[in-house]
Amino acid sequence: MGGLTTAEVAAAFLTSEKTMAQRIFRAKQRLRESGARFTLPPAAEQGPRLAVVRHVLYLMFNEGYAASGGPDLLRPDLTGQALRLARRLHERLPEDGETAGLLALMLLTEARAAARVGPAGELVPLAEQDRTRWDRAALAEGCALVTRSLSSSPPGPYQIQAAIAAVHAEAPNTEATDWPQVLGLYELLERLAPNPVVTLNRAVAVGMVHGPAAGLALLAELESGPLAGHHRRHAVRAYLLELAGDREAAASAWRRAAELAGSEPERRHLLRRAAESE
Asked: Element (H or E) spanning 96, and its range?
């Protein structure tokens, strides 16, 4: 339904394509056996079902914003569809804080899309982006949405992620970013929705606030588990090693990340970083 291949769905859930193919097969089988139809669920089921809808839209958007494989970094077809559906959902449920948070997160993230890709289609990381190319209207809408939702409903994971994106959006550059606030928000997010990707991002914030050694110590907790062989864990390790001044180890980690990356633009970016470290 979201236009994703089995491999892309597997990447979103940090599992293998074979495992995801089996899950999808069993799910289709259960739907056939139950005679399920696209009808509104009973009121008692709407909350849990809505959470699943938000999660699907979130994963669709993520695959569009950072494709897990192929020659292009971005898939505007996916981000556009996810944004359209999230906006429709928010229009139907304007008082739902997490739906507002999800839409805000998408707007604040998509606002940076033009600056994330260089002239040759290469990945441009946040620290190197020309922030004058960010979509100011989308940033303003996203910041207003998350501010309003946090003031009127209990904080949820999408609202917290949107708040983190807003902190980055408000900074003129990486150095001026309020990293203690980012770290505090990641700590709250980890309490609300613990998962290894949140820990990975928190390790970067820890490294910026408390020094790279502290970030690397936290990163060591992810050496086993679903991110053990993921390219982004090695990329974060490389970044923190660079901050620590260990350029030789950083180059090795950048190269390992490039070996594991499925996206061509990401692979080229990681190899460039390895060469720079060397």
From this structure: none
